[in-house]
Amino acid sequence: MKKLYIAFSTFSLLFLNACTKDFTEVNTNPNVPTKVTPNLLLSGIIKSAVNEQVGQAWGTGNLLVQYTAKIQFVNEDRYLWGEKNGIWSNVYGNMRNVQNIIDMASTSTPVQQNYLGVALILKSWLFSLATDAYGDIPYSEAIKAKTNGVYLPKYDTQEEIYNGLLADLKKANEILGTSNESITGDILFNGSVIKWRKLANSLRLRLLMRLSKKKSVNADMQTIVSNSTLYPIMTSNDDNAEMKYLADVPANQWPLYSSRVGSIDEIRVSKTLSDRLSAINDPRLYVFGRPSQNSVAAGTPKIEGIPNGLGDVAALNYNGGPQGVSRVGYSYACLVCNDNGQAPPLPNVARGIIMNYAELQFILAEAAEKGMINTATAESYYMKGIQANFAYYAAMVPASYGINVNPDQSYYTQPSVAYTGTISEKLGKIALQKWVSLFFNGLEGWFDWRRTGMPEVIPGRDNLNNNKVPVRFIYPVAEQALNGANRAAAVTRQGADDINTLIWIAK
Could you give the CA distance from residue 458 to residue 468 in angstroms, rounded to a whole number? Predict the structure, then answer.
């Protein structure tokens, strides 16, 4: 019996040894890598961040600056807000992988300067969205739990954050192109180093203009625009930082394409948009909206907007009901959002925008008008911006939609568009055209309006915020529990955690 026990024990040990010898190899899933390279992270970051831009535009940004308005579930349009966590979650969620790219690129031999530069641009853009929405946020200590054990990051001041963003964009421009690795996984620019450099410097100009309310940025702006070799910027629509969606891959189609028609139809063209563009005979109105169903039935198709900020009953019954109010443009619609007699919209027409050439031209027009730069006239920048935006939509919208986006020459000479008048009137014209160019570009229209107050945004008659347009998002409630002391310090420094508290850069 003893011999039998010894024999069994020996066999068991041999069996166990045989079973455990290759345990790690056998139980490792080759389809779930534990280590990745920058290219495998880059496409996911871009797609997630840009799609969030689309969502922010649709649900909040377009409403705030009155491109669109709501006919149902109208609290958003009446400023009855709670916390808005989309940007916060997206920025900090993506920032983990952005930092992973930075770490991998920095520690590789040789250093992968191209990936490092791209990551610094994405980091700067993403953090700019978060700080422009909330004010003071975790920045210098963010994403350092794994590497430095920082689980409760401090909230940096917005001034410190802007200094960091501008420094990183400058560094990105300097290092891009100084190494030889190809930028694969790049669904934005298909690996073009020069286009990434143009985006870095164009974003610098955007942020510098936003910062100009707090300090002089003239020298920095002049330095950039005076030397296109050292500081290339966008020179045409070909340089637009935008994600083009695909027609036959559902995972990479226009993000709203799979939406329910009911949720799409809650949002319609704002009367502010229809009135402003109708007043200047602007054909882009037919890109942004569709003729109301009632007007089509009557044989007199026209864009009919609805005022922002109406109560539920008033909004649903305005102009005879939903058939009397224009839907959002066909290019931005869902699969089943076609009107009678129309084919379904195409899923790859609309774009997810980070920044476009037209916006840059209006930034430069404002800078020239204010004497901040002297490289060209304000009028030349202004006209290039308008022409570029028309050309953009003319190229974007399929001929099958039957929309003529090209204005005749009289468009540019009419009093409301021609670059004439006082400085204030000229700045107002720049602001109006810039507002049009920022359609469906995240929260950028709101950020810019908050800085300039132009064009005017008047709260709707049934608003629930004492006739004030919100100027920031409140911090996520979870921050009170997870990082309460640092959040409280930011609130003490910045002011009440309220949608009406101006952040530092807007004061």
Answer: 8
CA 186/CA 369 separation, integer angstroms: 36
Can you tell me the distance from the alpha carbon of 293 to that of 340, in angstroms, rounded to the nearest whole number? 9
Q: How far is CA 118 from CA 177, 186, 229, in A?
A: 11, 9, 19
Residue 468 clears pLDDT 70, i.e. is over it: yes
For residues 361 and 388, the answer to whether their CB atoms sit within 8 Å is yes
Range of the domain at 392: 39-255+349-506
- Is residue 437 in some structural domain? yes
CA-to-CA distance for 394 and 383, rounded, in angstroms? 17
Structure token pair of residue 19: 């079973």
| Residue 448 belongs to a domain | yes
- Looking up residue 210, the CATH number of its domain turns out to be 1.25.40.390
Residues 269 and 493: their CA atoms lie apart, in Å, by 39
- Domain-embedded: residue 308: no
Q: Which amino acid is at 255?
A: P
Which residues are CB-contacts of 416 (< 8 A; sequence separation ≥ 6)? 279, 280, 429
Q: Buried (b) or exposed (e) across 296-311, using 16+ Cβ within 10 A?
A: beeeebbbbbbbbbbb
Using CA atoms, how far apart are residues 67 and 277, in angstroms rounded to an integer? 11
Q: How far apart are CA 128 and CA 166, in angstroms?
A: 10
Amino acid identity, position 301: P
Torsion of the alpha carbons at 101, 104, 106 and 107, rounded to the nearest 10: 170
Q: Is the pLDDT of residue 14 over 90?
A: no
Length of the chain: 507
pTM passes above 0.85: yes
- The tokens of 147 are what? 């590497």
Query: If pLDDT is split at 50, 70 and 90, which confidence band does 31 have?
Result: low
Judging by beta carbons within 10 Å of its beta carbon (0-12, 13-18, 19+), is residue 313 exposed, middle or buried?
A: exposed
Both tokens assigned to 23: 């345990």
Count of domains in the chain?
1
What's the rounded Cα separation, in Å, for the pair 179 and 195?
A: 16
pLDDT in tens, 488-504: 999 999 999 999 999 99
CA distance 164 to 63: 31
| Mean of pLDDT values over 458-477 | 97
Closest among 365, 506, 360 to 437, alpha carbons compared = 360
User: Cis peptide before 455, with omega less than 30 degrees from 0?
Assistant: yes
Exposed, middle or buried by CB within 10 Å (0-12, 13-18, 19+), for 270? buried
Residues in CB range of 126: below 8 A, 6 or more apart: 49, 90, 91, 94, 95, 98
CA distances (Å), origin 116, targets 42, 233, 240: 11, 19, 21
Residue 182 is assigned to a structural domain of this protein? yes
